[in-house]
User: What shape does this take?
Amino acid sequence: MHMGEKNHQGKPFITHMVFFPDGKIDKYQKTHLGHSEKEYFAPGNELPMFQTEKIKFGIQICWELHFPEITTIVTISTKCRKTPSGSKPFAVAAGLA
Assistant: This one.
């Protein structure tokens, strides 16, 4: 689910909501905006990792797939820690480039 949140200057972020099985809700704000988005949206400033009982994952949205540095950060971050159940962590990319 995507939703718009505004920064302190009134520009909205492109926000992807993450819903967990236990009812927890978290979010990811797109950090690397496409050329046509920069005029209308504010970039996020974090690359959060999300974890459930079985997986740990990060999110990339659309234009962000063009930046291998983001994929590298997500991959390293998800592989560096084991999940509580011992399953293998992995990176997830969401969106079309």
